């Protein structure tokens, strides 16, 4: 129960309810304060002389009772409790009105002896928690006007008994608080009703959007809000549905693309395997098989050659030994090329050192290796590409370049790794086709670099040799 209450207090619905009540409450406070302060300031500013008009109105009613139009006197607008007298020069009551025992024709000493010697003037009097104004006036014709009435109060306008005494400020605050509290009590159910009728459907729609977005994020790609209204919330829901449709379509497209990429990857792997098998078959046929055939033929004729000419037989035996040694070297080279596991086991740098040293001893060609590696982990794809490119490039040097020296450089940067292989051989014209029937050569190296998002550049001159420069990203992206 406590959790539900806490959750409700933090919800939009509760905040809107509170905001409605606060708006009504603050509005009532402001209106009450403004009204009471305005009326209080106006009434409090009244001086005793400001009440002389009520006294003069009494004289006018005595003089022109039948001729005065209704509503022209002050008491026709606001009637003040009290009394008023018009007294002749001989102290006889000429006119009397209000709450007084005096009537016309009586002597002043008989009904209001306390005013017998009153002097002209105005003053405030407080009696029994009530405030009165007393005005004594003399007319030009010798009559005396005596008026005693209660002062103006807010009750004269709003029907509430709030006397304008020195405690006006505290009274205004007290009645303002009372009015505000009453307003708040009545405004609370009204606010609840308004929120229930107008805001609750809006909150439900927003909650529906939030719930649907969670379902969609959780993997339910069919989840939709389906709010067709034209207001802001409806537009938000429609935009969400449109976005969900686009994302669902993109997901399906990505799945199809991933499936096609997987198929293409398998096909590329099969083609690479077939290419490697073809290359190994070619190398075995060109190097090993032919020499073994020569060894077989030379060995078969060796006994008869020794019987005919011993010296020529010795020379033939030496040739057979040299051919066998060369065949062993070629076989050793092939075995080195079939050792890719050592790359991952010992690291790229160690493998290059061993491979280049074996290659140099096997082919009797000078080779300088320069490595600038950080020692951090390189992906298996990058290491494998470098392995095969170095192997293929040095193989081409042996077969075609007629070089006496080769430089191999491998430099690792922050974003990429650069491999350079330079020989001082005969080179080849740049307009020579990179693909020769039956040979893969540069095409294979270029495709290996492109498959990892890298590039391969060739600089060749028939007088200065050839340079192959390969640039590979350290985090390659598979490109089919």
What does this molecule look like?
This protein has 480 residues and is α+β, with helices and mostly antiparallel strands. Among the domains are: 47-151, 2-Layer Sandwich (Beta-Lactamase); 345-480, 2-Layer Sandwich (Heat Shock Protein 90). The protein contains 13 helices and ten strands. The protein has helices at residues 2-9, 12-44, 52-63, 74-77, 108-111, 155-158, 168-217, 232-308, 310-337, 341-346, 348-363, 380-401, 441-451; strands at residues 82-87, 93-98, 121-127, 130-138, 144-150, 366-372, 405-412, 416-423, 455-461, 465-473. The strands form two sheets. The chain has a five-stranded antiparallel β-sheet with strand order 2-1-5-4-3, covered by helices on one side. A five-stranded mixed β-sheet has the order 6-7-8-10-9. Helix 12 links the parallel strand 6 (366-372) and strand 7. Helix 7 packs parallel to helix 8 (232-308) and helix 12 (380-401) runs antiparallel to helix 13 (441-451). The longest helix is centred in the middle third of the chain and has 77 residues, at 232-308. The chain starts with a helix and ends in a 7-residue tail after the last strand.
Topology record:
Layout: H1 2-9, H2 12-44, H3 52-63, H4 74-77, E1 82-87, E2 93-98, H5 108-111, E3 121-127, E4 130-138, E5 144-150, H6 155-158, H7 168-217, H8 232-308, H9 310-337, H10 341-346, H11 348-363, E6 366-372, H12 380-401, E7 405-412, E8 416-423, H13 441-451, E9 455-461, E10 465-473
Helix pairs in contact: 2-7, 7-8, 8-9, 9-11, 11-12, 12-13
């Amino acid at each position: 129960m406590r959790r539900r209450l806490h959750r409700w207090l933090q919800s939009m619905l509760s905040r809107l309810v509170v905001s409605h009540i606060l708006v009504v409450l603050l509005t009532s406070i402001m209106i009450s304060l403004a009204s009471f302060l305005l009326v209080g300031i106006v009434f409090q500013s009244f001086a005793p002389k400001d009440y002389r008009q009520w006294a003069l109105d009494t004289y006018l009613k005595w003089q022109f009772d039948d001729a005065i139009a209704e509503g022209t006197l002050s008491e026709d607008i606001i009637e003040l409790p009290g009394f008023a007298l018009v007294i002749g020069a001989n102290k006889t009551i000429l006119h009397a009105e209000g709450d007084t025992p005096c009537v016309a024709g009586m002597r002043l000493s008989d009904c209001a002896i306390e005013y017998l010697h009153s002097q002209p003037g105005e003053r405030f009097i407080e009696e029994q928690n009530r405030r009165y104004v007393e005005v004594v006036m003399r007319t030009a014709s010798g009559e005396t006007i005596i008026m005693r009435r209660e002062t103006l109060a807010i009750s004269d306008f709003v029907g509430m008994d709030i006397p304008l005494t020195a405690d006006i400020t505290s009274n205004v605050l007290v009645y303002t608080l009372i009015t505000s509290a009453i307003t708040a009590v009545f405004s609370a159910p009204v606010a609840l009703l308004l929120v229930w009728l107008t805001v609750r459907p809006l909150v439900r729609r927003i909650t529906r959007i939030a719930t649907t977005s969670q379902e969609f994020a959780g993997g339910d790609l069919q989840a939709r809000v389906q709010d067709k209204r034209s207001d802001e919330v409806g537009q938000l829901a429609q935009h969400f549905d449109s976005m969900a449709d686009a994302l669902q379509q993109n997901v399906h497209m990505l799945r199809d693309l991933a499936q096609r990429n997987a198929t293409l990857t398998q096909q590329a792997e099969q083609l690479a395997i077939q290419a490697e098998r073809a290359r190994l078959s070619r190398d075995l046929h060109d190097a090993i098989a032919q020499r073994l055939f020569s060894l077989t033929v030379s060995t078969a004729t060796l006994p008869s050659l020794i019987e005919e000419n011993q010296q020529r037989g010795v020379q033939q035996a030496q040739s057979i030994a040299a051919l066998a040694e060369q065949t062993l070297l070629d076989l050793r080279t092939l075995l080195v090329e079939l050792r890719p596991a050592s790359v991952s086991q010992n690291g790229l740098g160690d493998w290059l050192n061993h491979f280049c040293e074996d290659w140099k001893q096997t082919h009797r060609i000078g080779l300088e290796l320069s490595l600038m590696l950080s020692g951090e982990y390189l992906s298996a794809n990058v290491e494998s590409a470098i392995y095969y490119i170095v192997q293929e490039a040095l193989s081409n040097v042996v077969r075609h370049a007629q070089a006496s020296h080769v430089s191999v450089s491998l430099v690792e940067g922050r974003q990429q790794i650069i491999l350079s292989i330079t020989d001082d051989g005969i080179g080849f014209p740049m307009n020579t086709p990179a693909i020769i029937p039956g040979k893969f050569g540069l095409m294979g190296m270029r495709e290996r670099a492109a498959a990892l998002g890298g590039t391969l550049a060739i600089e060749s001159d028939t007088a200065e040799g050839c340079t192959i420069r390969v640039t590979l990203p350290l985090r390659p992206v598979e490109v089919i």
